[in-house]
């Protein structure tokens, strides 16, 4: 069984709570030093103290609002310059509520900045640094709505479809470099993202909501098993494989010199 890089530093965005905080605990237990990135410095410092005591690792806190370009660049430059970093977890993200036609465009621009632009800039910096070193792991947190956009609002679903596509393309670009790439597609997960986004999750059936710890543990198991795409709640992996196979069946006919007969 292949396991993730067993030494070096894991840079985790959105590390102060929820999925990011649990990844920090699990990666610390695997022997990673940590670089924790989020806006809430006090929560980061509290988490860092606990992680140092529990695991005897080095933990650094980097306070940054990743909706702000100048602060994203600060994290990006750290990725490019710090050769000890061997894993990037692109976890920071936000959801939104409501219809696109009625949306607050300022709020949606922040969502796109965080879920798309920030993820891209940090993945690019990590890809360059890790490929040069011939090792490293990039984990991007997407969502199952990338596969079923009709079930959620347009902008969030599209942003997570972007993360899925980015990961698939990046994996192809990094082939042969020694760099591992994974996209994680959680379903509904019990975290603070719902309250922060103003979404009422009380109507979601309990059997559809996964604890964040279970989600993270499944995702790391998928990484250990060499998965490019991990869908923690999907019982039958062959369904995903069939989905991928269907894309490849279409591939030879997606770009041809003449329109299909049905358009004549």
From TrEMBL:
Top-level taxon of origin: Bacteria
Keyword Lipoprotein on entry: no
Pfam families tied to this protein: adh_short
SUPFAM superfamilies for this protein: NAD(P)-binding Rossmann-fold domains (SSF51735)
GO molecular function annotation: oxidoreductase activity
InterPro entries named in the record: NAD(P)-bd_dom_sf, SDR_fam
UniProt keyword annotations, A-Z: Oxidoreductase
Sequence similarity: Belongs to the short-chain dehydrogenases/reductases (SDR) family.
Name of the protein: SDR family oxidoreductase
Naturally occurring in which organism (per UniProt): Pseudomonas prosekii
